[in-house]
Design brief:
Helix content: 55-70%
Distance between the termini: 60 Å
Structural class: mainly alpha
Number of strands: 10
Radius of gyration: 34 Å
Length: 984
């Protein structure tokens, strides 16, 4: 069949064919098919393109080809019909036989199926993706295998054609050209072989500035001396010319004799690197915190695997936790280790990468990249052919390396930490004090480096008991001093950097260490010190030069951020305790926390999140200079993005310091941003922690505000509930109402009443809910609280349910007018989506679709997945009612978002709708599976009406499956729920 005319559809079809039935997620499809335009391509564009491709397949495929979605898109096509499948099957049969004639026959048959490079002519395709690259690698492997076997099978001429074709496509693949030169010579074409060498040499010199590799030069030499490729037997003109050996690098650092534990991790890494050969380079990354033992484990495994990689072992320290090594410099060292002279190493990174990949092609080489900073640093150092393997360590999880195996290294198990202690100290000494050994391991946090240092102290002090060292380590203030031995005397090295500093900079160092925040901006340091920003910056620069503070890089607002290593932070705190008065430390922390609170409440006012009443406490604020504040808050969302980890840490530290007013107010300021951005864990955890403090200090206002926020986050996004979510929501909101009533805070009472009303709607008491919403609306108007008024009107509309949409519309239109006065786009978009759903349900399809799409546009601008998912569900319902094929991809997208965000309500509704679509399409098993899961989720939600409706649909699916007993049970339960609901 002819491919579709659109290049995008051609790309989608092509990569789905290459995947051979494996599912491809939307994100990967975007990177594959749109390549450098992926960031500008929305998920909706992908879904629309897939819908067009489905339609094209129906038109031309006659039902033989179809696309479904199961954890990703996949093309359903009979495997034997694919040339790629047949090619790989024939190549596999070739690998399984030893006879040269049979093997060459299979390989030639496989290569005859090839029509050129995979998906040739597609402009934007990401050809570096493993899916596309693996096809090229399979072809190259087959061609190289044919070249090696053809002379013995007397199949030289067809082999020459196959090798020459691929060599023209890969003009810099030196092993491939060397094979072509040998084949031409073996086929009686020495002149052509010499010309091939000449043209390759000129191309390498002119375009890369390098000389041909030793492998190519040896092939050239064999022609000149009239010999066959060296195989240990005499050539036609005498003894074969022995190859000049390429150096075998052995760069691994020495292993550690007392290596302990990590047996499972070592086995996993070894299996991933030296297991059965695949179609791509085996890459394994080991990630973890500093001192966790990443390098020790990597070097240990690399030494284990030396026999499996006779081509050698390359090693580079990439310094990812300091100044990262430049990939070009690393490649320079690698190329020299592989026999290149200094003059032969090209100047540019791209040229060095190409040459490096040529040099290691066909060689079993293990490459260890220690301490990688990021994927960008690593990618130029990866070989191209599957013979080599790469082992990477990094403090970061390098999830962007496609096809890599990721191992997250944790601290040692307690028993392993004790075993490490015993290996260094001696098992007999540990056996006499087993409980103290366990305690030492615990006080070291089971971190290998700390355990090793503690063990070193014991080795150097044979008269010490383990109990004595354990007792010393219990003192947090002195622990850093005790965890030092020999050249690992950490505190002494810090002293050498700290003591020469000017006194004011020493104070800055000590005070910065008091903060729990993972990193800070310069304004925070200025607030800590109580000085202007231009006075704080020189201290930071001096500390950076002394390697006591690191620059993380610019944050989302463009501000540079600074951090201390944990051990440095501990040292700074011990210095502060020794040199600063308690009141000075408390005052410094109060200034920093007050600065965060001052900025956070101003930023929160500008975030288009939920329109709850902004209720604050009496904690002291530290205002920032107007110019600094204006710069930081130019985009409030970006400021929150930059500061969220620090703000969360600040709220927790305020809790630890029992500064309850600061703690609850900081936590509450995070609500709107966390809601829009889906940062539900941070929202919930900061609120729960501050709430415990407020209850302990009897801070009633803080308790009320935090409970109000917790009602929202735990109801709609928490995967764990102690009971039906909507019931818990109502019960907690009733407690919030009592607190705000005691505080005489009418706006808080409006918010509590609205939450109670939602709970009553879910329980089926629509009339009660309407009365509560009416009370909330009147109270909001009297209090001059338009946000609460708009949400109360929205609740009035919700009480009519999907069956009374025409009655809901006036309330929603009024709510939209009220919300418009606030300028809160998020609130307006929420009401617009409900109005769109109501219009569609009432039969005004055009207006309903327009409003829902308008809400989706705003949600995407705000990057608000929860808001978008609701509109997608009702848009899918509208499409389903119209028989529009867009219904399925729309609800599948909603389902994906619901899973990712733990949106319980949306998840249940998406599953129910997908079940209905599957049932209508005749896919009864899938329908039953979706609907059963939807029912399970609805039970946890506690929303009676939706549960009853889904049970009725499930009963229909059971009937279609001829499971009549289950159908009767489901229908009876649904009828019971419906009959138990009170009327309006």
């Amino acid at each position: 069949m002819k491919p579709p005319r659109s290049q995008i559809l051609q790309g989608l079809l092509g990569v789905l064919l290459l995947a051979q039935g494996e599912p491809l997620r939307t994100e990967r499809l975007t990177r594959l098919v749109w390549a450098d335009r992926a960031e500008m391509t929305s998920r909706e564009a992908v879904h629309v393109a897939m819908s067009r491709l489905r339609k094209w397949l129906k038109q031309v495929g006659g039902g033989e080809l179809s696309i479904d979605y199961q954890d990703g898109y996949r093309l359903l096509v009979p495997a034997p019909d694919l040339d790629l499948h047949r090619f790989r099957a024939l190549a596999g049969r070739a690998r399984a036989v030893e006879d040269p004639e049979s093997r060459s026959s299979f390989l030639l048959s496989a290569l005859e199926l090839r029509r050129g490079p995979a998906l040739a002519g597609l402009e934007y395709l990401d050809r570096d993706d493993i899916l596309v690259r693996s096809v090229a690698q399979d072809v190259r492997e087959a061609v190289m295998s044919l070249a090696s076997i053809a002379p013995r099978a007397e199949r030289i001429e067809p082999a020459i054609r196959a090798v020459r074709t691929l060599a023209e496509e890969l003009p810099f693949d030196e092993p491939l050209h060397a094979a072509l030169i040998d084949l031409l010579a073996a086929g009686g074409q020495p002149a052509t072989a010499l010309d091939t060498y000449r043209r390759l040499s000129e191309r390498l010199t002119d375009e890369l500035g390098v000389e041909p590799s030793r492998q190519v030069q040896e092939a050239h030499l064999r022609i000149l001396t009239h010999t066959r490729p060296f195989d240990g037997t005499p050539g036609e003109a005498g003894e074969a010319v022995p190859a000049v050996p390429v150096p075998t690098p052995a760069q691994l650092p020495p292993g550690i004799p007392d290596f302990t534990g990590r047996a499972d991790e070592a086995a996993r890494i070894a299996d991933s690197l030296a297991g059965p050969a695949g179609r791509s380079v085996a890459v394994t990354t080991v990630a973890g915190m500093g001192g966790i033992g990443k390098t020790t484990l990597a070097v240990h495994v690399a030494h284990m695997l030396t026999a499996a990689f006779p081509g050698g072992q390359l090693y580079a320290d990439l310094h990812g936790d300091g100044v990262p090594a430049e990939p070009a410099e690393v490649l320079d060292r690698f190329l020299r280790a592989l026999g290149m002279t200094g003059a032969g190493v090209p100047p540019s990174l791209a040229e060095r990468t190409a040459l490096f990949r040529s040099r290691v092609a066909g060689r079993k080489v293990l490459i260890v990249l220690d301490g990688a900073a990021n994927e960008e640093q690593v990618r130029p150092l990866l070989p191209g052919a599957p013979d080599a393997a790469v082992l990477i360590t990094s403090r970061n999880r390098l999830t962007g390396l496609e096809g890599a195996t990721l191992l997250d290294l944790e601290v040692l198990y307690p028993q392993q930490a004790v075993e490490l202690l015993a290996r260094v100290v001696g098992s007999a000494r540990v056996a006499t004090e087993p409980h103290s050994a366990v305690e030492i391991a615990r006080l070291c946090g089971h971190v290998p480096l700390a355990v090793r240092i503690a063990a070193g102290r014991l080795v150097g002090r044979p008269d010490w008991t383990l109990a004595y060292l354990a007792d010393m380590l219990r003192d947090e203030r002195g622990r850093l001093d005790e965890l030092a031995v020999g050249d690992l005397a950490v505190r002494a090295s810090f002293e050498l950097s700290y003591r020469p500093l000017p006194a004011a900079t020493q104070r800055a160092f000590r005070i910065i260490g008091l903060l729990d925040a993972p990193d800070v901006a310069a304004w925070t340091v200025a607030a800590l010190l109580g000085v202007p920003l231009n006075e704080a910056r020189p201290h930071l620069e001096t500390l950076i030069d002394a390697q006591l503070v690191n620059v993380v890089g610019p944050d989302a607002t463009g501000e540079l951020r600074y951090r201390m290593h944990e051990l440095v932070r501990l040292y700074a705190r011990t210095c502060s305790e020794a040199e600063d008065a308690p009141r000075q430390r408390t005052a410094a922390l109060g200034r920093a926390l007050g600065g965060w609170l001052w900025l956070a409440e101003r930023a929160a006012d500008l975030v288009p999140g939920p329109a709850y009443a902004a209720i604050h406490g009496d904690a002291p604020r530290r205002p920032l200079p107007p110019a600094t504040a204006a710069r930081l808050l130019a985009d409030p969302m970006l400021w929150f993005t930059a500061e969220l980890p620090a703000l969360v840490a600040a709220a927790r530290q305020a809790c630890d310091l029992r500064m309850d007013e600061l703690a609850w107010d900081l936590a509450a300021c995070l609500e709107k941003y966390c809601d829009v951005r889906g940062m539900y864990d941070d929202w919930r955890q900061t609120h729960e922690r501050a709430l415990r403090l407020c209850r302990a200090t009897k801070n009633k206002r803080g308790e009320a505000v935090l409970l109000r926020g917790l009602v929202e986050v735990t109801t709609w996004t928490s995967p764990e509930q102690t009971g039906p979510a909507m019931v818990t929501m109502r019960e907690t909101a009733e407690r919030v109402l009592r607190l705000f009533t005691e505080l005489d805070e009418p706006r808080g009472r409006v918010d509590a009443l609205t939450a109670i009303g939602w709970g009553r709607v879910a329980e089926g008491a629509a009339g009660d809910a309407f009365a509560v919403a009416d009370e909330a609306a009147r109270l909001a108007e009297d209090a001059g609280y338009p946000g609460g008024h708009a949400r109360a009107l929205q609740l009035k509309a919700v009480t009519y349910g999907e069956g009374g949409a025409e009655h809901a519309i006036p309330y929603l239109e009024e709510a939209l007018q009220v919300a418009g006065r606030l300028g809160n786009r998020r609130l307006e978009a929420t009401i617009v989506q409900f109005l769109g759903a109501a219009r569609a349900l009432a039969g005004d399809v055009v207006t309903g679709e327009r409003l829902l799409n308008r809400s989706i546009s705003v949600a995407r601008e705000l990057d608000d997945r929860y808001l978008e998912t609701f509109s997608l569900i009702y848009l899918a319902k509208l499409f389903a009612a119209l028989g529009d094929e867009r219904a399925r991809p729309t609800v599948e997208l909603a389902l994906t978002y619901s899973h990712a965000g733990n949106f319980g309500h949306h998840l249940a509704e998406s599953l129910a709708l997908l079940g209905e679509l599957n049932l209508a399409a005749g896919d009864v098993p899938s329908a039953v599976a979706c609907l059963e899961r939807s029912v399970r989720v609805w039970r946890t939600r506690g929303w009676v009406g939706f549960l009853a409706r889904t049970l009725h649909t499930l009963a229909d699916a059971y009937e279609a499956a001829a499971d009549h007993d289950r159908a009767r049970a489901a229908r009876a339960e649904a009828d019971g729920l419906t009959n138990s609901q009170p009327t309006r």
